[in-house]
Amino acid sequence: MPHLTTTGTARRTSGGDQLGFGVPGYAHPLLAPTEWAELTRAGTPLHWAVLNIDNGPGARPDPHCLEAAGRLRNARERALRGEAPDDPVRAAGGRLLGHLDLAGGDRPFDEIVTDARSFVSWYRVGGFYLARCPAGRVGLPAVRRLTSTLSALLADSDSADGGGRLVLGHDTHPYPGYAETADQLVTFRGPWTDYRWSQVAEWTAAYPPGRFAHFVHGVPRTHLDEAMRVARWQGAGTIFFTDRTAHVHEGGQTDPFTALPSYWDEIVSRIGPGISE
């Protein structure tokens, strides 16, 4: 039985809190054509997907990424117009987010904003994923300043209807004040062996599930139900589970979230439209 909280304050999502996918960042569309195609398939409960060319937008527009971004944007627009009745989750989400690396708070503000402007200008993103976001109290003022600037940039963009979406990639529970600076926080990113025994921060109980995301790798097919129960009890509304694992090699470490899990069709069917626990 996973240790969900020390005080019993974790809560199950209700039927109206539809679980959906947040994709931390698939490989380049040339290397992962199936992955990007699956994101546009009708009925895929997609909240958002991250576009990351070269730890950011790259030096110039990439034609393959432009095509992938256009397909995803078109799928969302069809859902919004009611032309895809089996895509209710996409109509409420389905956004493409640009990957902005905060380097734990060490990147210059102007450099990050320049990357953000390129994402909006080239790929018409509907929001941003702030990777390696600081989690401590000391970093909060700088992140608040950045998210305020990014929100204004998105508000002026014709691609970010509804003001766009900002997701903070803490990968752990941050200082509570961060919950007021963005739309969503990633409060877990790591292996299943840690996730199944993880604890949720008590302060998260004051927020709806749509405010939190969990990314878990190394989840066996036989433990998918258990993993989804953990997510629901810990109050996460957005997930990405995969049976792929991280491997350390001479050049660094592989990212288990850049490709589809082997059980993609199964997990889509489990949390697709109209399905909830």
Short account of what is shown:
The protein is of the alpha/beta class.
Written overview of the protein:
Mean pLDDT is 89; it is low at 1-16. The longest helix has 18 residues, at 63-80. A hairpin with a 2-residue loop joins strand 9 and strand 10 (252-253). The chain is α/β, with parallel strands linked by helices and 277 residues long. It is built from 8 helices and 10 strands. The strands form 2 sheets. Strands 1-2-3-4-5-6-7-8 form an 8-stranded parallel barrel, surrounded by 4 helices.
Q: What's the arrangement of secondary structure elements?
A:
Elements: E1 20-23, H1 33-39, E2 46-51, H2 63-80, H3 88-92, E3 95-101, H4 109-123, E4 127-131, H5 140-155, E5 165-168, E6 184-191, H6 192-195, E7 212-217, H7 224-233, E8 238-241, E9 248-249, E10 252-253, H8 264-271
Parallel strand pairs: 1-2, 1-8, 2-3, 3-4, 4-5, 5-6, 6-7, 7-8
Antiparallel strand pairs: 9-10
Helix pairs in contact: 4-5
